[in-house]
């Protein structure tokens, strides 16, 4: 490896923050190597990406170069980039992540968009439940956008709840969210105007197709034999806990949209139930509204 000096990119190289010779050679075998390099350099230097681009004269210390090389080796081994940096962007916010939680996906932003749209139309709705909160990305995002909400957030994993609490504190909404270790619904008989859920929905037999399985928690991915085990139980338990008017938003696996829709209609036969697609045109979100 070279001395580690960062060379200023030309205008057309804005996605290439360093000269190739300044990076571990292995970085070039990774998809989008220069974008990844910029993220890793920002992490190693503990500086914003804009700072890295604006200071091409910066030299990496020997410790920093060694750190960068270790990160690249982990990336080559398949470890997701957010676990290397300890954070992931979601809905314009940075969330702390670790192997204790699923990495927030862009597809889940559809759920948040639908939730915010409904809340805008129902200003009287103030109680929210986030089932299977994981990193807390849904609950925390809603709290930052709607400071009058009171949110209950549950997860079976105590390690995940610690990450979610950390995110709530960092983003200054911890007083709005009550976190509880629970298997689906929280204790008590409180009803909720809005219920959001991103539960494990990968059929067990398809888990081996998920290329991050070796790093992301199986607990957050495995939806049982048909991928619907937890979703089925949620719909069975949910009717007495949902207010009127109310809304349920449930993310589902693309191939299970129709089956998830059937479960929702069975649990709420009189309500307005629909299936929404993500930007890729795949079934992604069951929307159930109680009028």
In the CATH hierarchy, the architecture of the largest domain is 3-Layer(aba) Sandwich
Structural class assignment: alpha/beta
Overall 3D form: globular
**The CATH fourth-level homologous superfamily of the largest domain:** Vaccinia Virus protein VP39
Distance between the termini: 64 Å
**CATH fold assignment of the largest domain:** Rossmann fold
Descriptive terms for the model:
single chain, 291 residues, alpha/beta, Helicase, Ruva Protein, domain 3, Rossmann fold, 2 domains, two-stranded antiparallel ribbon, 9 helices, globular, disordered N terminus
Please describe what this structure looks like.
It is a single chain. This protein has 291 residues and is α/β, with parallel strands linked by helices. It has two domains: 67 residues, Helicase, Ruva Protein, domain 3 (Orthogonal Bundle); 204 residues, Rossmann fold, CATH 3.40.50. Helices cover 32% and strands 19% of the residues. It contains nine helices and nine strands. The protein has a seven-stranded mixed beta sheet with strand order 5-4-3-6-7-9-8, with helices on both faces. It has a two-stranded antiparallel sheet with strand order 1-2. A hairpin with a 5-residue loop joins β8 and β9. α1 crosses α3, α5 packs parallel to α6 and α8 runs parallel beside α9. It is globular and about 65 Å long.
Question: Topology, please?
Answer:
Blueprint: H1 33-45, H2 49-54, H3 62-76, H4 81-85, E1 87-90, E2 93-96, H5 109-121, E3 127-131, H6 137-145, E4 150-155, H7 158-170, E5 177-181, E6 192-197, H8 229-237, E7 242-251, H9 257-267, E8 272-277, E9 283-290
Parallel strand pairs: 3-4, 3-6, 4-5, 6-7
Antiparallel strand pairs: 1-2, 7-9, 8-9
Helix pairs in contact: 1-3, 5-6, 8-9
């Amino acid at each position: 490896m070279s001395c580690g000096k960062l060379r200023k990119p030309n205008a057309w190289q804005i996605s290439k923050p360093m000269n190739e010779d300044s990076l571990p050679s292995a970085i070039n075998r990774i998809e989008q190597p220069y974008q990844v390099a910029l993220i890793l350099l920002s992490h190693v230097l503990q500086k914003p990406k804009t700072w890295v681009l604006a200071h091409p004269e910066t030299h990496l210390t020997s410790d920093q170069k060694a750190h960068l090389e270790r990160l690249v080796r982990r990336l080559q081994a398949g470890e997701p980039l957010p676990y290397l940096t300890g954070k992931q962007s979601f809905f314009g916010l940075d969330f702390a992540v670790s192997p204790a939680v699923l990495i927030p996906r862009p597809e889940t932003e559809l759920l948040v968009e639908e939730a915010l749209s409904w809340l805008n139309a129902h200003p009287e709705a103030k109680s929210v439940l986030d089932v299977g909160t994981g990193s807390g990305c849904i609950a925390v995002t809603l709290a930052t956008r709607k400071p009058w909400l009171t949110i209950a957030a549950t997860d079976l994993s105590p390690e995940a709840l610690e990450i979610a609490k950390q995110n709530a504190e960092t983003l200054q909404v911890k007083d709005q969210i009550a976190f509880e270790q629970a298997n689906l619904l929280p204790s008590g008989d409180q009803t909720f105007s809005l219920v959001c859920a991103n539960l494990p929905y990968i059929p067990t037999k398809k888990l081996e197709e998920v290329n991050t399985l070796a790093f992301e928690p199986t607990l957050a991915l495995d939806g049982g034999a048909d991928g619907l085990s937890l979703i089925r139980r949620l719909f069975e338990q949910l009717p007495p806990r949902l207010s009127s008017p109310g809304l349920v938003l449930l993310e589902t696996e693309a191939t299970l949209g129709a089956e998830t829709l059937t479960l929702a209609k069975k649990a709420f036969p009189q309500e307005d139930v629909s299936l929404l697609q993500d930007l890729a045109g795949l079934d992604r979100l069951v929307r159930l509204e109680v009028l």
